[in-house]
Amino acid sequence: MPCSNCGGSGHNARTCVGSKKKAQKAGTKRRSREDAEVASMLRADKKAKKSGRRDFVWCPEGTVPYRDESGDVYFEAAPRRVQCECGGSHLECGTAAGAKSYRSHMGSTRHMKYQFPELF
């Protein structure tokens, strides 16, 4: 495929050295030192990238920490898991999350192997 700047073959518009005028029109002009300093100051104003570490919070046994909009830490009871006869577990029924957990566990491969061993 020919170069879009000069029409030559074996290179592309980015690596073309034949026509510098077209390359400058395309937006590859050099920045002045002042422009570079302003750009670096603007980049410095942006938020620093967060690291992958989480803030660990001590909490009483049987509770789970959570933060509200203001950043304060509160504790709520941890969802209780129920052991199934097949060896799996699901959340207690009685809430929407518990019902969903129960239904998904009943359809799991582990529970199906326990309930219908002749199929596997």
Summarize the structure.
This protein is of the alpha+beta class. Among the domains are: 27 residues, no CATH class; 37 residues, no CATH class. The protein is 31% helix and 13% strand.
Structural class given helices, strands, pairing? alpha+beta
Strand content: 5-15%
> Mean pLDDT, rounded to whole units?
77
Spans of at least 5 consecutive residues whose pLDDT stays below 50 are none
Total strand segments: 4
| Count of helix runs | 4
Please give the alpha-carbon distance between the first and last residues: 57 Å
Main sheet makeup: 2 strands, antiparallel
Q: Can you write the helix and strand succession as a string?
A: HHEEEEHH
**Proportion of residues in helical segments:** 25-40%
What value does the Rg take, in angstroms? 31 Å
Give the CA-based shape.
elongated
| Spatial strand sequence of the major β-sheet | 1-2
Structure description:
- With 120 residues, this protein is of the alpha+beta class.
- Among the domains are: 1-27, no CATH class; 84-120, no CATH class.
- Helices cover 31% and strands 13% of the residues.
- A two-stranded antiparallel sheet has the order 1-2. Strands 3-4 form a two-stranded antiparallel ribbon.
- A hairpin with a 5-residue loop joins strand 3 and strand 4 (89-91).
- The two termini are 57 Å apart.
